[in-house]
Every structure is written in C-alpha cells, then in structure tokens.
C-alpha cells in the first residue's frame, strides 16, 4: 500500500538591502526557514556564493539530511538485529562539482563511528549499515552516490 507523507516548509528571503536584486552584489542571500512548531533556521548561501558563513546553507543541509537519515535508519536496523548502540557520531562530507552556471553533488561520504555494547555482535552492527542505507528515504531520493565508511567500536562496558 502506498502511503504518502507531506512536508511543508516556508522560506522567506530577508536579504533585500534596499534596492532588491538590481545588481549581483547589491543583495544578501539571507533567508529564514520556518517549519510549523519548530524553531526557525537562519539560512544563506555558501560563502563562496556571497553567503553568510554563520548561517545554514542548502549544501550543508543536504549533507546533514543524508547523515541524519542514515543514522536514524541505522539505529532502527541495529535494534532489529539485536545490536545495542551506545554511541553514534558521524563526520559526513559532500563533494559538489561546478559546471558552467551551476553545480551538482557528485558524492556524499558518511563516516559514522558507532559504539556498541560488549555483548553485541560487531558483524551484525556492520551489516546494519547496508540495510540502513537501503532504508534511508533521503539516500533513495538523490541521484549521486552516498557511501558509508563506518567504524564499529565495541564498548568495554
């Protein structure tokens, strides 16, 4: 059965410095992202594209979405496999290639370090990454490779 989920995001450009977009350097890329019931996010473009480095940019948020989706899928798959996860950190990186007037992501690499209990099976913990990758909604929605270079650490409990 096909179930659909809908997500609403309101985005407001706040970068009119008085003359709108009458010149490439005459406006800010600042914007506010609002999702009902959640704190607003201050957004901009990447500093390479005249954005504010102190604000979230779409490229960072795409890599974040892939990393957190994998993590949440992984925690579920580990639980199903009987693996007790006690810690999870990821140092994800995305690569974007510029082409003519635009660009596109060519790869994202996830590098999670997962700590599991001493009683858990490291092989099952490793295998849960593969099933998590196939279950991740965001990874299934992009047209570039998402690789996972996981490291499993067994806790001394």
Automatic annotation (TrEMBL):
SUPFAM superfamilies: OsmC-like (SSF82784). Pfam families: OsmC. InterPro entries: KH_dom-like_a/b, OsmC/Ohr_fam, OsmC/Ohrsf, OsmC_Ohr_Peroxiredoxin. Gene3D superfamilies: 3.30.300.20. It comes from Rhodanobacter caeni. It comes from the Bacteria. The lineage of its organism: Bacteria, Pseudomonadati, Pseudomonadota, Gammaproteobacteria, Lysobacterales. This is OsmC family protein.
